[in-house]
């Protein structure tokens, strides 16, 4: 981490900018940029969690949006049932996400590669259809969260700045956690398994156990993002679990750079910002966004972070 | 084929430099093979033998220098064009097609591009390696290491090349089969086949190859005939560690 | 003879119509270097894979250090002290050489559900790894990414990885293959040294090495043991000569 | 009983419809090992081309042929300009690149043809129901789809599994470098095969346009279905894809046809009426998940890589 | 403020952009008719694309409220997008006018002084169809609809008014189902006298294709809600001929405003025809106009504006209507049919008035009295 190269510089700059954003918003009176970035930060957290299993663990989950939904529904359903305390809602959101990940992971990890992609997709789609069938909680019309999670006055989630900083803290916390994990014994094993499972088994690692734990950690972090998202949107609906959403998360990760710590954050910022900005200029944003993605793949191996990493050498 | 004159240069590599990314591996390496000649490439692990062959084949294109094969400048050509000019490669590490059956591996790229009078056919390969005949409908991936090696050799022969390149082709073969390969190579040489061979068995090489090149850190440091090689045990000790 | 360290009884493994291991029984006693030879496709690699658990037998039993390991998954066998090298190189290609070896050391140093500290900073793992690399002659290449090592170097790394698990029984599948003359010589020397520390099963087609090293040799043909004896007896064994050695190796003598 | 037979027939023909969809993808993804999300876009382009050309020429057959040619060409151009650089790369790079193409094609179509979609009416001779056995009528056009799907299946199987070209494609997919070193111009071959895959996508699009719709985004849900088919069948196996398509077609149709009544017998009315639709919506995914849990490499695993 | 700022949230990308476009076209036309000024002030409209995703719609709504500080927000095709966006608008006391979506919550517990609808509550249209089927003496029906909230609402709506027997009820996978042959076979074999379906957009085209091709059209008549409109008709073509549906607005309603709306629309957008989505958007513009005029441009007088809008003090293209306590219209529903018009083109035609002054069944649940 000590090396001062372009990609690290950009990452540091990015973190600083994210920290100072509310200040900018207050000075210029541009509230919306804060709203926009709150959402981006939440998606960045979700993408970072996906990166943990995809970039480091080699598990291409095409159902990661399911955890956004599960975390969100945990908050939404508890709120609807009159339990407004965040001290209950959030642990439940994390626990349910973890449990779901454990179940899905245990079943899915029998498969590899594209089969894994498709089986995770299948489970996420099932979650989607189950949520759509929850007519008590709005079915696919979704569920309005009337009151944001209540943390006994410690922090007020309805306050824009406070909520933004909470999301940012979660993002940074998540990234730090991922960074530690990746460099830990556990992380090395997971990365080793990605590289050559047979070899790891032969030297004495129970590959799937490590994979599964990694999968659960990732799902839990994404569940946290889901809880944040539900509070941010004041609303949850099955639509957050639809496969296109999982696809969006994947795109963010690959775009930013798989297997690099800040890659998914950059990916989320670029992708969502581009989407927002382009839609201001033109209704045909795909005509620009599409080729941009293609060009990034063609000319920047390893996504934007990969590109930045090579800039030094020219 | 038998008529080809030993005087004609088939392959001429002249001062090539090759890099993997930023690290340079070959530093102005040169070698020459005449038609009908069998040439050996020797050197310790990691000295650049395989890289030389990859450069010749255009798999890792040389950055500078010249490579001529059968009268054509081939540096910079895509590898399939170079191969089409008549090079058959038995690559290091076998590289058979795992998702094709043994038979398919043999016939997929086979052909008799230069209308050899007595071309290799699947039956001849089976006669050479009876083991392959027994496994003809098995997927490549299920073969044992040695069987894969036989398959790789058979596959290269099936293209009926002007120049056969063997990169550690006897690795992992049982002694009987290995002997078989060596006698096959002598037989091929007799018929006028040009061969470039990398192998660690210096004894056998000295017996059947015409000339030898020793590579050290990406340069040819010595070249000469078998007699010269045997005459200079120092050389073997210095560069090959024997 | 002491109690066998490894004991295989009536092992059978079929692939479709092929019987790769055919009712095979054998023993490896502690401290010996036991070579397994046989023609290509005789089932040597398949046997090793069954011993270490990559391939499960159709029937038969494998006992290791007095324990029935027939149905244990490979990672558990590794923990019991079985280690192997692969004939077709199988390494973590995008890791550096030392990481490959350090991971092997880590696997046998308590559990790896440690999420916090940096594993690359654990001194004892790194040092163990470095020692193993030095031993196989890759000391100077420790920080090179595996995919950038030459073929021969990768073969040496295979052995270093197996060594780093500090096994009781080391199963080596053609460690000599792909090595140059110098490196082969060095490998033979290394194995001579190693055999003092650990029991070794060696699969190899390099007869000079086999005859120089082995205490006993088992000969496999079509999945069956056709002979199991000391080197000199094997050398003279008619059937072995016919099926495998040919005349050349039968007559030349070494050391 | 009669109802069951008719539903079976529906399932069979739906399965063949699915196979038609999956055919091009089997070639490009299953055999060439290239994850082409834009397959759905090519499918869409096939339908739009067909609707346009049929309207121009006034002939269904002529328009369809022109549309086939156009998608073939489009596929080749796409491959030549961009996608050929991605063969050796990680699957996920291919995912991102072709995802970009989806965005591009959707908006390009909206720009060119407008957001409203197009109609591709059938010629009169294809609208009459045909009597297949006494008393049972079947839409003529659906029969035609069955015939085309079977023909495509046979052609694919023969080309890929029984010819030298097929071997070369499979070899090239597993080791491009080596096949080149054996003197094969794998680039050209892949371009042509990709074009063929595109044409098959186009064929699926134009064949289905008259019974489905010609709409922006029509390829996306279908793409998922096609992937489901291929994965259930076992990647790389044409036979697998074919069987899986029919299997999924029948299970899905039968499930939708009989599951609700079955559930109603087991559960209370209210529970059944919420559970049944949810369950039949999930059916395909449930099926895939179960199959993959039991057989992690699909029903007909092709040889391991 | 020296201008009237209006935010317009609808879908402008993807396959359903066609609806968004029609809504925008009609809204623009309404502004043209108003001279692009409201109470003498210039009008500024900001169109935002919700991509048919609830969270995007919510974000766009927030942008309009926080960043653009609009006075009114109009639009919303989809119930879930509207529901996700509602809180933002209501909390900021910005008037929101739903020009299409009509989930039951909006009519019931979520009704708000700041929210008005120029469309309907989801159930009203199918209820009208059910009533019409009673009027025609239909004895039994087979119901088919997509398995999502609106689909269930629609079938429930029919059932709530239809007096005959419901012999079957099928839900299909939304939005991905391609093939309806299983359902059609079931319907055919159920011996039902009629089939009712709800399939909006492309699915409607697909359903009608397969219904006609399977030869069932000759055997069992079809009744629809939101399945045939001016957007889908060009794709459905003859398959839609003679298939009835119900709507609160049809292009040939004989009032002056409507004639002007339809004629000018077709003039301004050659080749296109207005739809009920457009009519609702057109009304929304006029509703806004009436409110701003009433307070003489003082947009801070929210109560007065609300009171004015409740009076429906403008001429709607659907003819006169009133607002219920929940700000959902109390209005007529008409029977529409597909016929060949004078130009030989397929078009929708009003056949009869099915119900007069229909009020949704959720208004009791609305706390506003
Ligand atoms: N893909 C690669 N990227 C980077 N460096 C490489 C790559 N392949 C080989 N090298 C390096 O190039 C040098 C020469 O390798 P090469 O494979 O040509 O050696 P060799 O003489 O064939 O050795 P061996 O006998 O072990 O096969 C080695 O130092 C190796 O580390
Ligand atoms: N997965 C498999 N499926 C089918 N056949 C297999 C499979 N694995 C091995 N075989 C066959 O079993 C036989 C034994 O193979 P094995 O790899 O054990 O041979 P080996 O003795 O190690 O040979 P070599 O000396 O060439 O390495 C071979 O004929 C091989 O083709
Ligand atoms: Mg080499
Ligand atoms: Mg072997």
Automatic annotation (TrEMBL), chain A:
Keywords, alphabetical? Cell membrane, Membrane, Transmembrane, Transmembrane helix
- The residues that cross the membrane are 35-53, 65-84, 90-107, 114-131, 163-182, 210-229, 249-274, 286-308
Transcription among keywords = no
**Where is this protein chiefly located?**
membrane
Q: Name one Pfam family in it.
A: BPD_transp_2
Q: Which domain of life is it from?
A: Bacteria
> Where does the record place it?
Cell membrane
The UniProt entry, under InterPro entries, shows:
ABC_transp_permease (IPR001851), LivM-like (IPR043428)
Does this UniProt record's set of keywords contain Transmembrane? yes
Q: How does it sit in the membrane?
A: Multi-pass membrane protein
Spell out the PANTHER family in the cross-references: ABC TRANSPORTER ATP-BINDING PROTEIN (PTHR30482:SF17), HIGH-AFFINITY BRANCHED-CHAIN AMINO ACID TRANSPORT SYSTEM PERMEASE (PTHR30482)
Record protein name field: Branched-chain amino acid ABC transporter permease
Q: What is the lineage of its organism?
A: Bacteria, Pseudomonadati, Pseudomonadota, Alphaproteobacteria, Hyphomicrobiales
TrEMBL record, chain B:
What SMART domains does the entry give?
A: AAA
- List the CDD domains: ABC_TM1139_LivF_branched
State the superkingdom: Bacteria
Spell out the Pfam families in the cross-references.
Answer: ABC_tran
Which GO-annotated molecular functions does the record name?
ATP binding
KW Transport (keyword) present? yes
Keywords per UniProt: Amino-acid transport, ATP-binding, Nucleotide-binding, Transport
Task: Give residue ranges for domain ABC transporter.
Answer: 11-242
| PANTHER family xrefs | ABC TRANSPORTER ATP-BINDING PROTEIN, HIGH-AFFINITY BRANCHED-CHAIN AMINO ACID TRANSPORT ATP-BINDING PROTEIN LIVF
Similarity remark: Belongs to the ABC transporter superfamily.
* Function statement: Involved in beta-(1-->2)glucan export. Transmembrane domains (TMD) form a pore in the inner membrane and the ATP-binding domain (NBD) is responsible for energy generation.
Protein name per its UniProtKB record: ABC transporter ATP-binding protein
Q: Which organism is it from?
A: Bradyrhizobium brasilense
Q: What is the lineage of its organism?
A: Bacteria, Pseudomonadati, Pseudomonadota, Alphaproteobacteria, Hyphomicrobiales
UniProtKB/TrEMBL annotation, chain C:
Q: Which CDD domains match?
A: ABC_Mj1267_LivG_branched
Taxonomic superkingdom: Bacteria
Q: State the UniProt keywords alphabetically.
A: ATP-binding, Nucleotide-binding, Transport
Instruction: Note the SMART domains from the entry.
Output: AAA
Q: Which residues form the ABC transporter domain?
A: 6-247
Q: Which PROSITE patterns does the UniProt record give?
A: ABC_TRANSPORTER_2 (PS50893)
Does the keyword section mention Translocase? no
- Molecular function as annotated in GO: ATP binding
- Is this entry keyworded Transmembrane helix? no
| Matches recorded under InterPro entries | AAA+_ATPase, ABC_AA/LPS_Transport, ABC_transporter-like_ATP-bd, BCA_ABC_TP_C, P-loop_NTPase
Q: What does this protein do?
A: Involved in beta-(1-->2)glucan export. Transmembrane domains (TMD) form a pore in the inner membrane and the ATP-binding domain (NBD) is responsible for energy generation.
**Name of the protein in question:** ABC transporter ATP-binding protein
Automatic annotation (TrEMBL), chain D:
Which keywords are on file for this protein? Answer: Amino-acid transport, Cell membrane, Membrane, Transmembrane, Transmembrane helix, Transport
Q: Which domain of life is it from?
A: Bacteria
| Location(s), subcellular | Cell membrane
The yes or no answer to whether the keyword Transferase is present is no
A Gene Ontology MF term for this entry? Answer: transmembrane transporter activity
Reply yes or no: does the keyword Zinc apply: no
> Any coiled-coil ranges, and where?
none
So what family is this one in?
A: Belongs to the binding-protein-dependent transport system permease family. LivHM subfamily.
> What biological processes does GO assign it?
amino acid transport
Q: Species name for this entry?
A: Bradyrhizobium elkanii
GO CC terms in record: plasma membrane
Indicate how the chain sits in the lipid bilayer.
Multi-pass membrane protein
- Residues annotated as transmembrane: 12-35, 42-58, 64-83, 95-120, 140-160, 181-202, 222-251, 272-294
| InterPro entries, alphabetized | ABC_transp_permease, BCAA_transport_permease
Protein name as catalogued: Branched-chain amino acid ABC transporter permease
